[in-house]
Amino acid sequence: MDVRDVLHGDDDPHRLLSLCAGRSAGEVPGPLREAYRRAAGGVGDTRHNGRVHVPRPSAVPEPTPGTVPAALPLPTGPVDRHALVPPLGVRVAGDGVDVAVLASHATAVELCLVDVVDASLPAHDPARYRERRVPLAGPAYGVWHAHVPGVRPGQRYGFRAHGPWEPAAGLRHNPAKLLVDPYARGLVGELVDDPAVHGQVGSDPYGPADATDSLPFVPHAVVVAEPTGTLAPRPRVPWRDTVIYEAHVRGLTQRLEALPEHLRGTYAGVAHPVTIEHLRSLGVTTVELLPVHANVPEPHLLASGRTNYWGYSTLGFFAPHAAYATRAAREAGPGAVLDEVRGMVHLLHEAGIEVLLDVVHNHTCEGGADGYHLSWRGLDNAGYYLHDGGSPARLADVTGTGNSLDFRRPAVVRAALDSLRYWAEVVGVDGFRFDLAVTLGRGAAGFDPDHPFLVALQTDPVLCGLKLVAEPWDVGPGGWRTGQFPPPLAEWNDRFRDAARQFWLADAREASHGRPGHGVRDLATRLAGSADLFGHSDPPLLRGPVASVSYVTAHDGFTLADLVAYDHKHNFANGEDNRDGTDDNRSWNHGLEGPVAAPDARAGGGPGAGIDALGIGVEIAPLRRRSIRNLLATLVLAAGTPMLTAGDEMGRTQRGNNNAYVQDDETSWVSWDLSPWRKDLLATARYLLALRREHPALRPDTFYTGRPRPSDSSGGGAGARGPGSDVGVPDLVWFDADGELLDHSAWHDPAVRTLQMLRTAPEPGDADVLMVLAGGLDPVDVTLPGVRAASDADAERWDLAWDSDWEHPEDRDRANGDGTARAGDVVALEALSLRVYVSTPPR
């Protein structure tokens, strides 16, 4: 068979995509039990779109052995290749289940019902299981289907696909391999490091098919009934008020001793009142959870007994990762695991907190062509995966994982949309963050902002009203696309990350060696909402600064504390000889690599405590802490949607590891044992987020123009009373250290390290807010500016709201003076510091 007969018509062997290197029992416990006691009062509608669904019985009967014959004869009669088929997956329907699976190049597909007949045997012992096979009818538009009576929720199952084994043509059918249903709602069992989990013999991806049955070595899909109970309404937090908190389900609470031990590191733990209180007191409105789809470790990790802690290795796009559920839920089965996830969402919603899921629809866990043979590869390798168009067929890797899902294929687009709707409607989540989202928008000619998948996100009635966030890059050709996604998607703003780190850390490090930096222009652009990136739309400026999900750290990379303690990555614990992880950290250790080593009054740390002061280098610990506060304030007070990484508000360290994807231990888990300086930092984070909530000038939902607002004829703010207030004022003004307007030459001068950003009040009664940034290595005198006064006598009054030189917000009470000043007054700022002033009415 010619490869061109199989692969997509747009696969051009003369226009090959770049191949990229691999990158690295019982009821539900705790607070969820009460949530579901209340929620179960309503039956029927369990989704958010108003559809009514048949409720699940309160007691689910166990599967009845022998109801389905050990094997059924193949369907007879003509095949209707254009029949209407049920929705994909295995769904409870009447006296059994409706089954449908896409395998467009297969010659036959069997539903395999798996029963555990001797639970005393090891999980990978074939004698533990009995398998009953049911041939499916089809294909109808590539879908194999049947109604199978006698199958009940809790039944394990999989598929076996028959067809040609022609790897050079992209065809990898091997009926010896039990395949996971791509639409499975639950999974049980572990993946075992055994040759049987691969489709071919040995490591040659074009070698002969391996005949070993994989059933004992792979996870099994499980039939899950539709859940019941009404979920709490979505909080619907406006974008301008949104504060995102990126967290890992296990890592967030694994070390939280205030939680009962059996709830730590679980979905239930995320929704425990102690956790919720922390999030609410911090000012978080929206939790973004690292992947919770069922996942398995990559082959090299499985072989070494390690795991992908982050979870970016999906096996089931509809199934929750069972390892994050409580033991009781896991023992009760996938239905209980799903209930625990829904309970988590329900309780967070009751607390007013939204839930976003980080979803990985760009690739699967199966890896490269020599990788696993677990699901998609065995069902329809040529139909699901992106190929380079060559012969022999090769996977085109634009994700750095060995494979990429082919979003030119309607079936791939449909699967992603079906998964998103399921999590939105059944589980009730509030939105999604799309990992490597450029892959999801790749068409025949590369990335296309009008790609059908992206159009569907804008128009689908279930999805278009959710919070949707793109990670706007992948590793393929033309993969960096920040600012190029269509509304209503927001995007991670890597340019904000880089600019903030560059100004406060990398440039300061260079200056300490007598080398020039980059000035203030890029940082100012990011502080103002990155209109250069997100302002391009039809009509212009439609997306607003809220489209910029601004961040300084994320799950990958240094933590906030490590940014100020390490110049270089220390990733040897990952087992890759420190080759993994980026070298572009833009960090600064302030003169000493790693933790300092002598006690100081604020440190109270211990060995490996990141920036705690325990001996040598104690003199740099205060400056490190100030640098953390500078970065935190820059993030929280900039125009845009701030995203904090869990634990940064408490000085979490990974001991210099900037790629801790395999560290499912104290390296990655949030520490809740707070030394004095970490308590101070938490208080500071709470204070800054409260300041953001208090002042609308810090939460714009439209881009600044540098001109008076269209409705602003009186100046609008608290400082707009008195002489001169009948003149409109610009929404944003930039000043230099002398209180003068920043001119063109200063914008382009790398030596300029002081910047004043004045944002005027958007509504009458609100306050103007002035941020003063001093990025030099020496203290600096700054003349405070004004824009409202008609004369010196009416000069605006400024109240000092915060100074990054303060270890704790209450340090203001110990500061010199009362913190008030007038426009034109000269104030002294410490080196590498940031101040926030708020206007008060003139006396």
Describe this protein's structure:
Residues 242-692 form the Glycosyl hydrolase family 13 catalytic domain. One of its GO terms (molecular function) is amylo-alpha-1,6-glucosidase activity. Keywords: Glycosidase, Hydrolase. This is Glycogen debranching protein GlgX. Residues 572-587 have a biased composition (Basic and acidic residues). The chain is elongated, with a radius of gyration of 29 Å. The protein has an eight-stranded parallel barrel. A six-stranded antiparallel sheet has the order 26-27-28-33-30-31, covered by helices on one side. Strands 4-3-7-11-10 form a five-stranded antiparallel sheet, with no helix packed on it. The termini are far apart. The model is unreliable at 1-72, 600-609 and 712-726 (pLDDT under 50). The chain has a domain at 705-710 and 726-839: Golgi alpha-mannosidase II (Immunoglobulin-like), CATH 2.60.40. The chain is of the alpha+beta class. It has 18 helices and 33 strands.
CATH class category of the domain at 705-710 and 726-839: Mainly Beta
CATH homologous superfamily classification of the domain at 705-710 and 726-839: Golgi alpha-mannosidase II
Q: Separation of termini?
A: 87 Å
Report the helical percentage: 10-25%
The CATH topology name of the domain at 705-710 and 726-839 reads: Immunoglobulin-like
Shape: elongated
Low-confidence stretches: 1-72, 600-609, 712-726
CATH architecture annotation name of the domain at 705-710 and 726-839: Sandwich
* Chain-averaged pLDDT: 89
Report the β-strand fraction as a percent range: 15-25%
Strands ordered across the widest β-sheet: 12-13-16-17-20-21-22-25
Number of helices: 18
What is Rg? Answer: 29 Å
Protein name: Glycogen debranching protein GlgX
Family: Belongs to the glycosyl hydrolase 13 family.
Domain Glycosyl hydrolase family 13 catalytic: 242-692
GO molecular function: amylo-alpha-1,6-glucosidase activity
